[in-house]
Design a protein that fits this description.
Number of domains: 1
Largest sheet: none
CATH architecture: Up-down Bundle
Number of strands: 0
Structural class: mainly alpha
Order of helices and strands: HHHHHH
Strand content: under 5%
CATH superfamily: Membrane associated eicosanoid/glutathione metabolism-like domain
Length: about 140
C-alpha cells in the first residue's frame, strides 16, 4: 500500500511539536527572568501581561489542533481506503506548506489579519477538496 500520504502527517506533527518546544522555551525564559511565576506561564490562561510573542506562540499552537485534526483524518482515510495517488499527496503537502506559512506569519508579525486569513482559508480549501475528492471516489 502506498504510504506517501503519511509523510505530510508526520511533517505537520513534527512542526506542532516544534512550536510547543519553542513556546516552552520562551515561557521558561520568562520564568527564569522573574517576569512571571511558573504557575502563570504554565497555567491556563496566560496572564494578560505576557509578551506578545508568547501569546502568539500559544495561539498558534492551539490553531495547530483545530482544523488540522480534519486533515489528519482525511489523510488516514485516504490511506486506509487505498485511494492514495500522486494528486492526494500533492494536496496534502500543499496543505502542510500553507499551514507552515500561516504559522510563520502568525508568530513572526501577525500585522495583517487579512493576509493570514487568506492563507488559512487556502489551506482549508485544499483540505476540503481532499475530503470531496475522497468521497467522490466511492
Amino acid at each position: 500500500m502506498n504510504t506517501d500520504i503519511l509523510l505530510p502527517i508526520f511533517y505537520l506533527a513534527v512542526f506542532t511539536f516544534t512550536i510547543q518546544i519553542i513556546s516552552t522555551v520562551f515561557r521558561s525564559r520568562a520564568v527564569n527572568n522573574k517576569e512571571h511565576t511558573p504557575e502563570e506561564m504554565f497555567g491556563i490562561p496566560l496572564p494578560d501581561n505576557s509578551s506578545d510573542l508568547i501569546k502568539r506562540l500559544d495561539r498558534n499552537h492551539t490553531n495547530l489542533f483545530e482544523y488540522t485534526v480534519l486533515f489528519y483524518a482525511v489523510c488516514i482515510s485516504i490511506y486506509i481506503t487505498g485511494k492514495v495517488d500522486g494528486y492526494f499527496v500533492i494536496l496534502a503537502n500543499s496543505y502542510v506548506v500553507l499551514r507552515l506559512i500561516h504559522s510563520a506569519y502568525h508568530i513572526a508579525s501577525n500585522t495583517n489579519f487579512s493576509l493570514r486569513a487568506l492563507v488559512w482559508l487556502g489551506s482549508n480549501v485544499v483540505m476540503l477538496w481532499m475530503w470531496i475528492r475522497l468521497v467522490m471516489m466511492f
